[in-house]
Amino acid sequence: MHIRRTTTADLPSVMAIYASAREFMRESGNAGQWGDEHPPRAMIEDDIRRGESYVCEKDGEVLAVFMISPGPDPTYEKIDGAWQNDAPYSVVHRIARHSLAGRGAKGVGAFCLNWCIKNFGNLRIDTHKDNAPMLKLLGQLGFIYCGIIWLENGDERLAFQKAIHSL
Question: Which helix (H) or strand (E) holds 16?
Answer without folding.
Answer: helix 11-27
